[in-house]
Amino acid sequence: MTKKIAVLPGDGIGQEIVAEAVKVIERLKQAYGLDVELEQGLVGGSAYDETGSPLPEETLQLAKESDSILLGAVGGYKWESLDIAVRPEKGLLGLRAELELFANLRPAILYPQLADASTLKPEVVSGLDIMIVRELTGGIYFGKPRGVRTLDNGEREGYNTLVYRESEISRISKVAFDIAARRDNRVCSVDKANVLECTELWREVVTKEALAFSNIELSHMYVDNAAMQLVREPKQFDVMVTTNMFGDILSDCAAMLTGSIGMLPSASLDINSKGMYEPIHGSAPDIAGQNIANPLATILSVAMMLRYSLNDADNAERIEAAVNKVLDDGLRTQDIYSDGMNKVSTSEMGDAVIAGL
Ligand code: NAD
Asked: Which among 85, 9, 70 is positioned nearest to 283, based on CA atoms?
């Protein structure tokens, strides 16, 4: 049955990089019988300009009725002074909340061809391939009570609540175990169980859920050690699963191990593996409209979509192999360029991937 993909380019370079990803999908349809239909929608600042809302009802409906969503990026200087309720980022947060996308998958992959882009020694990071599974809709970012109150002595006090229900921990650990089963079968659960009761429960529930996955090797690590190990010896990890806040921090750290923000895709999944796929970077207003942005993170987001939501590992591998080939051939957009390589534009990079397919 034909699957439907909602295509939401958003703002800034979102328009340019999503156009290249769409070209890749069209090529897979034509050459390998990929059975999908695409429908475009507005989100972010460009949606606000046209409709007065960063997440128009029409876009939300489109996202709900689609099997998957491909998003570019939202935001830009133009909308920074808007009221917070209609800022472009509200479009993205609204989609995550409305679609209950609770599992954030953030791979940190360093292609050996780009090992020099990392600030770490090439031997520490070359060939790195970690998947961080971050809980996205719970934890301290959403827990109540929260706020700033004034005490009897007139001093102000800020407070937030770290809270996780067993069901929330159990569903995110299952996602991590499922993903590890398609990789190297190893999951490291990151917590602070020595200090926080909430993550003591986290550890207990993850351990219980692991019993149903006999092939998975589960380990636990405190978050401070995990941060240290990510920088010291990152290749020891396969899949890491953790809370919203710890995942927020660790996934950015892991992304930076690779040194190339324009290369990394991400996914946010619901309970049925319906997902929203997007590059980890933003709308890069500083380079928007110049045809110089790196489209590979968005193109690799399509590969993730095929693998995790559309059950099409063959076409996912085709895209990944084509990306590998363009890197082998020395093609580089300016963000990953180094001496002796062949500098190409956004559209030339997209064309090269298509040729590689
Ligand atoms: P950014 O990721 O947009 O840019 C950071 C730096 O990386 C910039 O110098 C940019 O030119 C460069 N860069 C990013 N993607 C690139 C690519 N594909 N190719 C080449 N270079 C690339 O982050 P920022 O500058 O902090 O934010 C800019 C806007 O994007 C803000 O409005 C912010 O709110 C928004 N943002 C959106 C998302 C999202 O939509 N998911 C995520 C982060 C930031």
From this structure: 9
Please tell me the predicted confidence (pLDDT) of residue 109. Answer: 93
- Indicate whether residue 117 lines ligand 1 (CB < 6 A): no
Cα 310 to Cα 36, 69, 80, 226, 355, distances in angstroms: 10, 11, 36, 32, 23
| Percent of the chain surpassing pLDDT 70 | 100
Q: Do domains 1-109+260-357 and 129-257 have the same CATH topology?
A: yes
Is residue 43 classed exposed, middle or buried when 0-12, 13-18 and 19+ CB atoms within 10 A define those classes? buried
* CA atoms 165, 171, 172, 177: torsion sign: positive
Ligand 1 atom showing the smallest separation from residue 334 Cα: 20
From the CA of 287, give the closest atom in ligand 1: 11
Q: CB of 73 closer than 6 A to ligand 1?
A: yes
Token duo for residue 204: 């207990």
Cβ of 280 less than 6 Å from ligand 1: no
Under the banding of pLDDT at 50, 70 and 90, the label for residue 50 is very high
List, for residues 275-315, the tens digit of each pLDDT value: 999 999 999 999 999 999 999 999 999 999 999 999 999 99
Question: What's the predicted TM-score (pTM) here?
Answer: 0.93
Which of 252, 270, 329, 351 is an active site residue? 252
316-356 pLDDT tens trace: 999 999 999 999 999 999 999 999 999 999 999 999 999 99
User: What does the angle CA 63 – CA 68 – CA 74 come to, to the nearest 5 degrees?
Assistant: 60
pLDDT of residue 117 exceeding 90: no
Domain boundaries of the chain, sorted by first residue = 1-109+260-357, 129-257
| Fold (topology level) of 1-109+260-357 | Isopropylmalate Dehydrogenase (3.40.718)
In the residue annotation, 32 being an active-site residue is answered as no
Of residues 117 and 60, the one with the higher pLDDT is 60
Domain covering 129-257 assigned CATH 3.30.160.250 in the classification:
no
User: What is the CB-side half-sphere exposure of residue 43 using CA atoms within 13 A?
Assistant: 29
